[in-house]
Every structure is written in C-alpha cells, then in structure tokens.
C-alpha cells in the first residue's frame, strides 16, 4: 500500500475491487501502462526500484501515522448498548382505583424476569413496603404467584404458537448439563428463525429433565415431543448440538422422525451442525 509523504501531490495507480473474489493488489498485468514488454529490461528494473522506494514510508511518516491513529482511538466514542425495553413513562398513570389483579400480574412478571423464588412475595418487609405504597395492597402467597406465572406462560405460549404458523424455516440448538450436585440432568431446546419483518428471533422452547442414562434415543424423543408440542416438527432445517457421542445418535434418530414429515434440506447433509 502506498503511503504518501506530506506535500506529495503525485498520483498513484489505486487498485479497484470489482467483487469479493478480486485480489487486494493489482497484478503485474494491471501495471502494464508503466512497464511494457518491448522496453529494455534495465528500464523495467529501474521502475521496480522506484515503486519499491515509493512504497516504503520513512520513520517520520510512520510516527506521524501512528500518532494520528492513537489520537483517533482516544477520541473514539463509547459503544452504546441497548437500554431496557421497559419505559417507566409508558406505565399507565394511577387512575385512582387500585386493581389488585393487575398488580398481581406485574408482580409475577417481576418474579420471572429476575428469576426470584416464589417465596419472595411472602417476605415481611416486601409486604410492609407494598402496604406503605398502597393501603389496599393484599399479601400474595407463593402458590398464588406461581399460578399467576403459569397463566402468563400459557398466554405467551399461545401467542408464540400463532406466530409459528407464519414461519417456514427454523433451526434449533440444544444443550445438556447437570445440576451442581450432578444428580439431575437437563436439556434446553432453543428455536431460531426469521420473522416476517426479517428480524432474527430466538426463544427457549423447552427446558426438561433427561434422567440418566442419557442415551441418544432419549434425547431424540425429548426433542421430537417438543417440536410436536409447538407444531414445528415439519419446519426444522438444522439442529446444532455439541460433539457428545449421545448427540450423534440423537441426530440420526431425529432424522428418521423429521423425514416422516418432510424432505430434509440437501437430503440431511446440513441437518447436523456441530458446536465446538
């Protein structure tokens, strides 16, 4: 790459990139206007020496370039991460009538978003705070808030199943791990798809216990039941799993199930995606 010294107004031949497969630099043929085949070889060698000399920047030039780059890096703006989707200004203003049922729904969302224990609503000082905020507050038991969370889940699941009706292709990823005491083994299944607005979406479709021995056929059965439950068993194109031997067996069994509903993409050669 040619680095011009300050005040150098000479023009240089700049290679143009035609497509992604084009080389970065021009070939010898592209510089034929500078060196012709019928010109004496000594002239060509002299041209080579001039180009090589011109392409090497002096130490001062390099230091100036580094200084400019360092200056740019110091003034680079910070990366702005997306803020929370909850806008406090969008919360409906208090209308003068306290609705305990609506408050219970928001408390259930608070529990699920932060993954708190259901017993959090039975905390003494939590109820003192809520009672102070509104004298009409009624204590909620862990059983009541659990049932409310289940209702919200069923409502969201129904909405998501309706959205899946308009999804033609979907990929899933799975992961398995054990609890801290290594007595309970879990499997999580996540769906990935492009929505109608061409935005990438992903949702956890199932989180289920898979007791040992965790055989491939057991994993395949769990995944297949999940796909049937969501009504997407005929829309799966790829499955990403880690390199455990049980997963190899699970994928082969799952291929049999999927082929009963649809023809696999590229006859299944792209179905199994290994996750390192």
Automatic annotation (TrEMBL):
Residues 1-24 are annotated as: Disordered. It is found in: Nucleus. Residues 7-24 have a biased composition (Polar residues). Its main location: nucleus. GO terms for molecular function: zinc ion binding. The keyword S-adenosyl-L-methionine does not apply. One of its GO terms (cellular component) is nucleus. Keywords: Metal-binding, Nucleus, Zinc, Zinc-finger. This is Transposase. It comes from Buddleja alternifolia.
């Amino acid at each position: 790459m040619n680095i011009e010294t300050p005040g150098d107004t000479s023009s240089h031949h700049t290679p143009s990139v035609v497509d992604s497969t084009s080389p970065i630099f021009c070939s010898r043929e592209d510089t034929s206007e500078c060196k012709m085949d019928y010109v004496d070889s000594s002239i060509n060698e002299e041209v080579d020496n001039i180009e090589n000399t011109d392409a090497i920047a002096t130490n001062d030039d390099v230091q100036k370039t580094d200084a400019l780059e360092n200056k740019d890096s110091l003034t680079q703006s910070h990366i702005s991460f997306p803020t929370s989707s909850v806008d406090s200004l969008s919360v409906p203003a208090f209308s003068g009538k306290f609705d305990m049922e609506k408050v219970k729904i928001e408390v259930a969302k608070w529990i699920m978003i932060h993954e708190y224990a259901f017993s959090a609503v039975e905390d003494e000082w939590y109820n003192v705070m809520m009672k102070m905020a509104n004298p009409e507050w009624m204590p909620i038991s862990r059983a009541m808030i659990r049932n409310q969370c289940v209702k919200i889940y069923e409502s969201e699941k129904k909405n998501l199943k309706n959205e899946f009706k308009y999804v033609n292709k979907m990929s899933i990823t799975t992961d398995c791990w054990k609890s801290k005491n290594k007595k309970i083994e879990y499997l999580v299944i996540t769906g990935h798809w492009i929505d109608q607005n061409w935005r990438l979406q992903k949702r956890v479709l199932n989180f289920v216990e898979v007791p040992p021995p965790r055989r491939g056929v057991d994993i395949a059965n769990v995944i297949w039941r999940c796909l049937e439950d969501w009504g997407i068993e005929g829309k799966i194109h790829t499955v990403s799993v880690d390199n455990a031997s049980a997963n190899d067996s699970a994928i082969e069994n799952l291929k049999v199930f999927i082929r009963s509903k649809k023809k696999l993409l590229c006859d299944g050669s792209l179905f199994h995606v290994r996750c390192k």
